[in-house]
Amino acid sequence: MRIQHFVLTRFNVRFAFFINQQGHGEWPGADPAYLDRRLAFFEKYCLPAMKRQTVPFRWLVFFSCLTPEAYKERVRAYVRECPSFEPVFVEDEKPIEGSDMQETFYRYVGERLDADAEWVVTTRIDNDDAFNVQALAWIRQSAEETLSEGRASGAFLVVLRHGNVWLLAHDFTQACSWMGNHFLSLVCPRSDRRQVLSFDHRRFKDLGLPVVVNPKEHAWLEIVNGTNLGNGFRPSFRACRMTSRELRDNFAIDADLSRMRGLRFYWLRYLPARISRRLRKMAKRLAASGAKSGSA
Fold first, then answer.
1. What average pLDDT score do residues 190-206 get?
2. How many domains, in total, are found in the chain?
3. Total Cβ atoms within 10 A of residue 123
4. What is the reported pLDDT for 228?
């Protein structure tokens, strides 16, 4: 049983669906200000832990072929720091439609398959998020155990369920468990042309595939680089639990977390907002219940 592992990351490819979804009047992916900002996040938060992974993998990061040459050289230089890194410059002079996304990503994976690869693991990560330094080893272990024990004869998903969210503007960190997170892995036999970017991670159940859940804690770090609270946060007394040392040990990120600032944000802004929202929902349900009773 020979497994080959790919990590797939989108960067600035011109996909029509994402351009329309994000409401950009123009595609921003070749703008120097945009690239400087995105690459700075990539270098500080995403790249460090990928350099410290402990199992073999190929990391395909998809860039637009229209990326300015100076930035192409900048990303090619990452290979010296992380030999598994491979920039892929996608032919996207014309925006790629949603129906072509699956074939676009699979083509680049398929071209790089080893002759003896029997199973293919594709794992997704966004360019401004981070994996635990052991994450790919945990994914591979789950895949190998599932196959060797005969628990799957076809494609299946591996989910690192437990991770952390970090709201940068407030040093707010929270441990969370999320099945449909954007760090999923798809394990397929070589003949299966699917890969992990071919479906919406939030709708993974629609695939109807077996799901293997890896129980490791702190497996991933979602980094919210704005002040928007609409990013799936749920109030929990596990909030603010991560220390600067844990951030370095788990994710290879060198940053000083202000625990007090995170707690202050949680108690004074975040938790009251969530309680208020919950009370409004309860009031609506009670009003609806009262209306039904009155009409009975």
1. 88
2. 1
3. 25
4. 37
Within its chain, how far is the Cα of 31 from the centroid? 24
* CA–centroid distance for 220 within its chain: 8
d(CA 18, CA 127): 15
Number of CB atoms found within 10 A of residue 177's CB: 13
Phi-psi region of 232 (alpha: psi -120 to 50; beta: other; left: phi over 0): left
Domain presence at residue 49: yes
More confident residue, 110 or 96: 110
Residue 150 within a domain: yes
pTM of the predicted model as reported, rounded to 2 decimal places: 0.87
Residue 296 domain-assigned? Answer: no
Structure-token pair, residue 264? 């202050």
Could you tell me the residue range of the domain that residue 187 belongs to?
3-289
First-to-last C-alpha distance (Å) of the chain: 65
Give the DSSP per-residue string, 268-285: IIIHHHHHHHHHHHHHHH
Identify the residue whose tokens are 């009003």. Answer: 287
